[in-house]
Every structure is written in C-alpha cells, then in structure tokens.
Amino acid sequence: MRAIRFLLALVLGLGLLTWGASVLVHRTTNAWFERDVSLRAQLAMATARETLVSRWSRDKRVALRAALVALTHDERILGAAACAPDLTLLAATPDFPEPFRCEKLGPVVQSAPEAAPDSWSPWESVERLPGGTVHVSAIPMSDGERLLGLLVLVHDMSFVERRDALARRFLLLAFGFLSVAASAVTLVAARLSWRSWSNELRRFLRTGKEPPEFRPLMRDVRELVERIVTERESEGEGGAWTPQRLKLTLNHHLHGERVVIVANREPYVHSHAKDGRVEVLHPASGLVTALEPVMRACSGTWIAHGSGSADRETADRRGHIKVPPGEESYTLRRVWLSREEEQGYYYGFANEGLWPLCHIAHARPVFRSEDFRHYQTVNERFAETVASEVDSDDPIVLVQDYHFALAPRLIRERLPRATVIMFWHIPWPNSELFGICPWSTEILNGMLGASILGFHTQFHCNNFLDSADRLLENRIDREQNAIVQQGRSTLVRPYPISIEWPVGWLATAAPPPECRASVLAELGLAPDALVGVGVDRLDYTKGVEERLLAVERLLDRFPAFRGRFSFVQLAAPSRTVIERYQQLNQAVESLAARINERHGTRDYKPVVLLRRHHEPPTVFRYYRAADVCYVSSLHDGMNLVAKEFVAAREDERGVLVLSQFTGAARELTEALVVNPYDLEDASSALATALTMSADEQRVRMRSMRTFVSEFNVYRWAGRMLVDAARLRRRERLTGRLTDHLGAAVESIG
Ligand code: ADQ
C-alpha cells in the first residue's frame, strides 16, 4: 500500500515535470523555427535579388511574376509579391494570401504615414490564418541607388506545429520511460536500505550491540527514554517532590532499603557551652543542609567524624546516636579521629590540597605526603565502618564529597556488590589543573570504585571525564557518559543539588515584616534603612572581600545610599587552623573597618560584620529582613545560600544578586547575575536591586520560588536513587546471566 502511494506520488511529480518541460520545449523550438524561417526569407531574397531587380517594373510584370513563382518552388514559401514604392501591386504568385497585399503592409514598414520609401524598415511577423500559421516578411528592395519597393514573402509554418507535436510526443515518451525506471530504481534501493536498517535494528535489539550509524541516535533516544521513565515513575508517585514521595520512591524502587551516608561533617554536633551545658549545633555546611532532610525522609545511617566536644558522651559505646533530637528517625554513627589524623586528612590534604585545587580562587594548593597518608588511613577507617554498619552484602552507600575520594574503591573491595554513589559537592577542575595533584591517579581510581559519580553540572562531569581520559588507562564511553575500567563502569551524571521545600525552619519563623523590624532593632538601624545581607562560611572561595569592595564602590558611586544602606555579613568562622583562612579573617575585618571609617558616622555603619556561627532560625530571619542578598562566590559548586534566600521570601520581595561563577546562576536566571571581580558591574547591580520596583521584585522572586520548589533536594536525591535502583536491576540481571553462563559452561565441562 505504501509502495503504491509512493509510486502515485512519483508519477504525479514526474507528470508535472513533463508538462513544464513540454511548455519550455514548445517555446524554445518555436523561437528557433521563426529565426530559421526569417533567415530562409533573407536567403531566398539574396539568391533571387539580381533577377528580381532586373525585372522590377510595371513593364516586366510577367517576367517579374515568373521570378516570384520560381521563388515559391521552395516548398515552404507559400507566396511572394512585389510592391511598388507607392504600395501598389506589381506582381504576385497566384495564391498569394489576401491579408498581406501591398497596400495593407504599407503602415507596418513606414515609420510615419507619409514617410519616404528610403526610410522603410524590414518587417516580419507570425500570423494565424484559417488554413494555418504563416510567417510573413516584408523586405525593402533597392537597386543600390533607389528604393524599388517591397518584396513580400509568406512562409508556411505548419511544419513547425508538426515538429512541435512530434517533439512533445517524444518528450512524453522519454519522461514516461524515465518515471518508470526511476520509480523502479528508487523502490528497489528503498527496499534494500530499509531491509538493511531493519535487520540492523533487529540485530541491535537482539544483541544490544548498536552499529556505529545508530550511535548518535541511540544516545539521544536513551537520554530521552531515561528522562521520561524517571519523570513517569516519579509522576506515578504523585505531584511535587516531598519527603513522603522520596520515601515512596525508595520503597517502590529499592524496596525500602536503608541508605548509608558517608560524610565528614555530622548533621548534629554536641558541644559544651560556656556554662557547661551540652548544646546541639547545626553546622554551617551546604552538604548538611542538603542531606539532612533526605536522611530524615529515607532513614538509615549517617557515618561522620565526631567533631563536637560533647560528641563522645552523647553517643553510645560504638559511636551511635539516634537523631534528629526528639524525632529520632535515623542513626548517626560517629567516627573518632586523632588530632593528627584530623590535621592531615581534613585540614591538610582535603582543605589545603583538594579544596583549592578544585576551585578557581587563586589559592595555591599544598600537597604533603604525610597528609595524604592520613587521608588514606581515614578513608580506610570510614570504609571499614561502612562494612560494619550494613546489614546486607549489597547496600546503597552515598559517599559525600572531596574528603572521601578514595572511599568508593575501598568500600567496593569490602562489599563488591554494593551500589556506591559518590557525590562531589565542589567543582571539578580541568584535566591540566587536576594533573598537578601528585596523587591524581590514586584519587581518580578511588572515585571510580563508585557505580555512579555525581556533580552539580554537566561541565564538571565533562572535566572529570577528560581527567580520567588523560590520566588513566581506561575506556571512556561517551555515549553513556561512563568510564569503563576492567569491565566495570562508573556512570558520570549531573545532579544539581538543592534545599528542602518548604524549609523546615520557616514553619515557626515570624513573617517577613516582623523579621525586618527585629533585625533593624537589633542592629540599631532606622525603620527606612536599606539592608543587604551576605551569609557564608568565611572561605576565600565565597568572595567576601570582593563583596565588601562592591559595597564600598556602591557608596562611592551613589552618595544617595550613604547613611541609608547597610550591608550585614553573617560569617561563620571556618577551617581557622589553616593559615589562608586566618589571613582571610584578618583581611575581611580590616576591609569592613576601612569602609566604616570612610563612609560611616557615629550613628551609621555601612558594614556590619557578624563573625560567628548562627543557628538556622537566625539566618532565615536575616534573609527575610533583607532588601538584597548578595552571593559573590569566586567559584562555587552550587551555593545553597542563594536558594535559601529565595525560599525565605514568601512575601515575594527582596532581590538576589548572584555571582555568575556559582552553579546556582545556571538555574536562578531571574537573579541579577554579576561578575564579582568586576566592581562596577557588581555595584551597579546592587544599586539596581535597591531601587527595583516591588512589581519587578515580585515577578523575579515568584519565578525563582517556583523553580526551587520544584527542583528541591528530594528530587535531587530521588533522581540519584532511582538511577541507582535501575543500575542495581541491570547488574542483578547481568549477574544472573553470568551465573547462568558459568553453570552452563561447568555442566558442559
Ligand atoms: P558550602 O561551601 O558549605 O557547600 P553553601 O552551598 O553556600 O556552601 O551552603 C552553606 C550553608 O551553610 C547554607 O545552608 C547556609 O545557610 C549555612 N551558613 C552559611 N553561613 C552561615 C553562618 N554564618 N551561620 C550559619 N549558617 C551558615 C558545598 C559547596 C557548595 C554546594 C554545597 C552543597 O561548596 O557549592 O552548594 O556544598 O552541595
């Protein structure tokens, strides 16, 4: 049926083509023949000229007529006539057509009614007569000195029609033959190539081995199918991503298996307060902010370094404690490290080596071999702890961040059937930069023990794939975005992290106007003050110095903000043992002092530096009080402060000014995105934010809130765990096939 439709279309197409061609052929041949006849007329006249001239007078009419009759012996000349200069007939052949008699041709050869004969010009035309088409030419005759009159020749053109009809018939036949031949060839070619494609497709579906020409196509198809399946699977479990939905997803895909998290930072730190009481602190850490709600939703075990001064006494003998306090939905397993181990593994290799290596923030990485030895020991300790905590031989283990690059392989050595997902919370540098790490291959090999390796952005995934390609002997599967080592593959995927939605801390928070009033009162600011806020661990990657310089530039350029705008920086001291962080602390402090000196007064402080850890309710109170939040990271994997600010603004007010070097800038495009190094750009953005209309703020904030609410941390975890579940299913099937094959081979043997 399809072939018939195809044939009909082909024939119709060729028919149209034939018709067009025949019109063209008709026009062209007619033009050729007319020119041919015109030449013939001139030739005939030239040949008979001498005879005609000698007989051109009324006295020699009979002889003249005989010469004209002789001219018509050419079968194509129907008639000839000789006209005198006064346009009376001298002589004509017997059947000379009436319409072309001398007196009728006068007007066409004369330039004006009374024009002298020597100004006549030759004339020719194709005319239709009842008997057929003729070509008429009227040629002025002279004896070299004076004009004798007109020679009129009438040519028969019917032969043109005959030839034209013949040419058309031939053309039709030729096109008809061509159509049939072309259809046949096309059909055969199409059938052959279709057969080869369907054979290839069948072979691919049977064996799973795709031929090279399918590869680009299959990659797209695979990605699309995966996306649709993930979305469909999650849709089936209902609407927006919530803790309940994450739990359902886990039950559905992983049969409710418990998840083990390995992270350096613990979500709850028990410390001795000054009065001797034990207090619980929530550390300032993006990783904790993101993972804690996931663990509350999934349950399981979080293995972390017990770093609080009261951690040991609050945990049991094996370092276990149920958290969150009062809710107890999962277990925190604390691992104890010696001071040297903490120094070498955490401050040394992780934070003086890998942290500056992965961030473009112009801090030189420091690599010491004793630090790396501690890093190895601690990674082994955590891998050992994972093995002791799990209750099956194929657990799901989520290894977090750059503190545990070696752990995935160490865990796999102990639990070969585990599904290990490693998430790298910071950027991954390009391969040249990464290559300067003296243990780059150990780090890569360690990470490749994971089944899935996650980064915030595709860009960081690509950097990782390139590093593995350049520095290791392995195969990069660009179709799957995977690295294959000794038959085992590690998928490399982007999973942009986010925050819980709605944020738990906001459930009991005061409404934004109250938060604003309390913050203004706390800081002694006027009710109409404009407030900017920055919230960070005091880290050189966060661009706190650049942020304060932008505030200074704003006050320099726009005096109207002096006395009215104050920037509040909540800065949690971080990694203070490291010299670079001590320098930063100093630098930020002197910068704030300088700006306050330059632009402040007795009652006005442009920069308010609150250098201590703040518990989340305070942080959110400040977010709600601010007119603008400035996130100025010089390089940041994602940056959750930006998302928290958006989440805090239920009133749809406030403007986010966001560094283009954060992962968040790719998602929160309605923020005012700036280059934090460019102080003109940044100070202009601050001025724009502080003068932005309420409507504009609302539109931008609403759009960002919709995004963060949908792309929240439950979705992040859900996508990763669904991918893990799919991988487990595939591995189980492959395992079953391998076992089956092994048994078959054994039985044959
Ligand atoms: P971090 O570098 O820790 O995270 P970020 O994502 O900004 O950075 O998260 C910081 C968290 O600490 C936020 O929840 C914030 O509220 C809190 N915080 C900051 N300053 C504080 C203060 N002074 N007092 C109290 N709390 C404070 C790393 C990567 C990021 C990535 C996260 C998650 O560097 O790029 O977004 O992991 O993957």
Kindly summarize this structure in a few lines.
The protein is of the alpha/beta class and 749 residues long. Helix content is 51%, strand content 17%. Helix 11 links the parallel strand 12 and strand 13.
Oligomer state of the chains in this structure: single chain
Binned strand content: 15-25%
The count of DSSP E runs of length 2 or more, i.e. the number of strands, is 23
Q: Note the main sheet.
A: 10 strands, mixed
Q: Give the spatial strand order of the biggest sheet.
A: 10-11-9-6-12-13-14-17-16-15
Q: Termini separation (Å)?
A: 54 Å
Task: Please count the helical segments.
Answer: 22
Small ligands present: adenosine-5'-diphosphate-glucose
Radius of gyration: 46 Å
In the predicted model, the low-confidence regions spanning at least 5 consecutive residues are: none
Share in helix: 40-55%
* Rounded mean pLDDT score: 88
Structural class determined from secondary elements: alpha/beta
Outline: elongated
